[in-house]
Amino acid sequence: MTPLTISKKSNPETEMSGMNQLGLKTKFPVVAGLVLLLALVPLLHLSLGGFGYWLHMLLYTFMYIAMASAWNIIGGFAGYISLGHNVFFAVGGYFSAVLLVYFDISPFLTTPLAGLAAMVLGIVFGLISLRTRGPAFIISTIALTMVIKIAFDNWDYIGGSNGISLPLSSLSNEVVKIPFYFAFYAIALVTVYSSYRIRHSKFGLGLRAIAQDEMKAELAGIQTRQYKIMAFGLSGFFVGMTGAIWGDYLTFLRPTIFLSILVAAKLVLMTVLGGKGTVSGPVLGAILFILINEFFVTVLGGSELNIVATGLLLAVVLLFFPKGIVGTLKDKGLLPQFLDWG
Amino acid sequence: MNALVQVLLLGIALGGVYALMASGLTLIFGVMRIVNIAHAAFMMISAYITFWAFTVYQVDPIVSLLFTMPIMFGLGVVIYRVFFASIAGSEKLGELSVLLTFSLALILEGVLGYLFTNTYRSTNPDYAIKAILFGPFFIPASQLYATVLSLLLLVVFWIFLRYSRTGNAIRATTQNRESARIVGVDVERISMIVFGLGTALAGASGSLMTFLFSFYPGKHWEWIAILLSLIVLGGMGSMFGALIGAFLLAIASSYVSFYFGPNWSPITFFLALFLILLIRPQGLLGKKMEA
Fold first, then answer.
1. Number of structural domains found in chain A
2. Is the C or the N end of chain B the one with fewer CB within 10 Å?
3. Does residue A228 form part of some domain?
């Protein structure tokens, strides 16, 4: 039967060892060096001063690297487009915010719990919505955003539509960004590493089979339903964690900030831009998008034109480079090795 | 008891408008398998045209349908050519079309926001504040006019689909794109016309919206979420499903509004969507979805 030969061909073990031969030795130092270098930026700030803007931009980039990579687990690997991932962002953010405001527990401690809360929501939602696929599924993710938005807007305990303010950090202005920097950095590393491990596991193989042909995947014995629900929950877990830290960083949470459709749009755009279903695609996409966005903000200013630019960019990528940068380069054999992680 | 009947009437009096809003969406999906996330953004464009015609030249919003519908038809045709003509036959059209129309919605929202700011707008013709009495009950004149007009438009549209040559070709394409091509339907041309018609229907509902609900560019997200839920409930691509869904949900949401307050009324649509996904994923009148 064809499905069997497919799974044999891309057996995770052989693929992994194949990758070892294909230069894991040369590309590992590049990435490890980069990872170390980024850990040193706060030191630069402490010793020389004046790197506040860089710290902010980098931690913002780390956040989106984590979120886009998380989105990619369900949207890229499994091919289930979600336009509702800002819900996990909001649930994670509010979860930790409430624990801070009412119980005085720092979000830095409750971040994994916030991730779990988002994951539970993802699983419950998945149980209902992953019964359908294609357009109806995407629509249900939009509906999820709206339900959570209405609920949060009208829930006085968490501040309703006015939002909720968090106590300010006791740290001085000079160093206040540094814990956030490392928190986002850690979350980004964990998410990207998880995405890499998933991509090269039996689980990831199952997800990719679902993306290609769900019927055949099911016939080949893959528990498609469990796989999809797990992918959706995991994806929510990482986004929920970023929400927890971002809320504390802003010191102010409001449904319109966290549940803006623009957040969901960015995750899709970054992943599609970089390359849907690849490990390095969302990372590259997040970095590029934030660079482009900074450029637009300085040149165009207004937030309305910014929305136009986001939409235009997404349309152009979809129409002309549907495989994204990583996918397109790979097809042409031009992908630099340090970006080739499957 | 009287209050409950009154709430029912108010619900019914919005159902026709919802049906008109959803009709273009479900038509385009039925013929082309395109989920048009930008549908409500099209409504916004038409709403702004209507608003300015009313504010500057005192053109009655209902009269403005005479020009918003043709304008929106033209716009739909142009947008179809630019965005969708090249991908019409592509394999992952469903997914791609959602993302493409999503980006289109962002573009339109940004342009409208840039041109007209985010101020809440609405038109106020005389009938916007009148009510029509039926014994102890009332219906706001605006809602009654809008719903009756919507239903009229839908009947005209149904006659067109049923009895005209183009209408038959559209229905054939909805049933089976490939077979329609084989029997000589110019599927490309039909797709273009349908996209234009769907957009014109969005235009008509956008004009009517101006005196029923206040709006601003970003408002289209709330509308599209409601309308998409509605067509999933009815069965995607089914016109009658959309009609039934529209009335059911208009009535249900007016009761939710009565018991829990107007803030909660939109949630009716989304909970109905989740409910239908649990018990009948293909929707009330939908066919089983193909793989």
1. 1
2. N
3. yes
Overall size of chain B counted in residues: 291
What range defines the domain where residue A98 resides?
Answer: 52-260
- Residue A10 confidence class, pLDDT cut points 50, 70, 90: very low
Least confident of A17-31, A104-118, B188-202: A17-31
Distance from CA of B1 to the nearest CA of A (A): 28
Q: How far apart are CA A235 and CA A77, in angstroms?
A: 11
Quote the CA–CA distance of A282 and A288 in Å, as a whole number: 10
How do residues B124-172 score in pLDDT, each as one tens digit?
A: 898 888 888 888 899 999 999 999 999 999 999 999 999 999 999 999 9
Asked, for residue A287, whether it belongs to a domain, the answer is: no
CA distance A242 to B209: 39
Instruction: Round to whole Å and give the CA distance between A255 and A240.
Output: 15
CA distance B158 to chain A (A): 25
Per-residue pLDDT at A36 exceeds 80: yes
SS (H, E, C) B130-186: CEEEECCEEEEHHHHHHHHHHHHHHHHHHHHHHHCHHHHHHHHHHHCHHHHHHCCCC
Residue A207 covered by a domain: yes
Sign of CA dihedral A91, A94, A95, A96: positive
Q: How many CB atoms lie within 10 A of CB B220?
A: 27
The interface predicted TM-score of the complex, written ipTM, equals 0.89
**Residue count (chain A):** 342
> Phi/psi at B139 (nearest 5 deg)?
-130, 130
- Domain presence at residue A68: yes
Q: Is the pLDDT of residue B31 over 60?
A: yes
CA nearest B235 in A: which residue?
A136
B98 contacts A135? CB cut-off 8 A: yes
